[in-house]
Specification:
By secondary structure, the protein is mostly helical. The chain folds into two domains: 43-63 and 186-262, Helix-hairpin-Helix base-excision DNA repair enzymes (C-terminal) (Endonuclease Iii, domain 2, Orthogonal Bundle); 66-182, Hypothetical protein, domain 2 (Endonuclease III, domain 1). The protein has 15 helices and no strands. The protein has helices at 20-26, 31-41, 44-60, 66-72, 80-91, 96-109, 113-117, 121-128, 134-152, 160-164, 171-182, 191-200, 208-218, 224-237, 256-262. Helix 4 (66-72) packs parallel to helix 6 and helix 8 (121-128) packs across helix 9 (134-152). 37% of the residues are buried. Bound molecules: iron/sulfur cluster (SF4). Iron/sulfur cluster binds next to helix 12 and helix 15.
Length: 271
């Protein structure tokens, strides 16, 4: 897995293959060159449009994601970052309501890293079932809890590279922990964020890593903590994967997909 990080532009390297564009550019960028690239790639008009899209989404969205719900439950508790980390790991390819229910069952029995690190794998599997790959995820979250106890005294690190080093934690999960547990600026890119930002035409990218890179250039840092929550909630309720609900969507005037595909009758939309 690529360990390129947006913040320091370094790739600690993987053995299986790294996106060559990211690798080629990552080692040599400085903060100054990133800012220059940002200005060059996205002008004021594109940046203003992107902020307008975010504002419209904020007005349209009336629900919260599972991670927002979980992180808002007793946010000052020392185990809050742990719950966000574990729930994010459970959420991979799993619908939000299933993740929330599985997390609630798990944390009622194992509320912190210490207790989960000593848990029996079959017990954990049965608690988190039916999240997808519940056996693998049970093993992983126990392993992660052991590392948190041994290396961090049961706490969760608020550092991207340390999070990424945990087994089963990829870029999206690490960024989710930074945003939802620590309110630090990061842009977790999942299928919703990738799909919607490309549909609207905010970015033109082929994979989530590049989407993350481009959104970070498009949006000023003060907006980063909002991006995942708004895009995901918007994707769950309005800009749905198969048939988006364009008829009720206020982003239409700014949306490339609507203008070129839906308005012209090439693709369906629903209300
Ligand atoms: S107009 Fe349609 S495709 Fe565009 S953002 Fe809205 S729901 Fe998605």
């Amino acid at each position: 897995m690529c360990t390129w990080t947006l913040e320091n532009f370094k790739c600690k390297r993987d053995k299986k293959g790294c996106d060559s564009r990211l690798r080629r550019t990552s080692a040599t960028r400085t903060k100054k060159t990133r800012n220059e690239m940002s200005v060059k790639k996205f002008g004021k008009t594109e940046k203003r449009r992107a902020v307008r899209v975010l504002d419209l989404m904020e007005k349209a969205v009336t629900t919260e994601t599972a991670l927002a719900n979980i992180s808002s439950q007793d946010p000052s508790s020392p185990s809050s970052p742990f719950r966000v980390l574990i729930s994010t790991m459970l959420s991979a390819r799993t619908k939000d309501p299933v993740t929330e229910e599985a997390s609630a069952r798990l944390f009622s029995r194992f509320p912190d890293a210490d207790s989960l690190s000593k848990a029996d794998k079959n017990t954990v599997s049965s608690l988190i079932k039916p999240v997808l790959y519940y056996n693998v995820k049970a093993q992983r979250i126990i392993e992660v809890s052991k590392i948190l106890v041994e290396k961090y005294g049961g706490s969760v690190p608020d550092n991207f590279d340390e999070l990424l080093a945990l087994p089963g934690v990829g870029r999206k999960t690490a960024n989710c922990v930074l945003v939802y547990a620590f309110k630090l600026p990061a842009i977790p890119v999942d299928v919703h964020v990738h799909r919607i930002s490309n549909r609207i035409g905010l970015v033109k990218t082929k994979n989530p890593e590049t989407t993350e890179e481009e959104l970070a250039m498009l949006y000023d840092k003060k907006y980063w903590v909002k991006v995942n929550e708004l895009f995901v909630a918007f994707g769950q309720t309005i800009c749905k994967p198969i048939v988006p609900r364009c008829k009720i969507c206020d982003v239409r005037p700014l949306c490339n997909y609507y203008q070129s595909e839906v308005k012209t009758g090439k693709r369906p939309s629903s209300s």
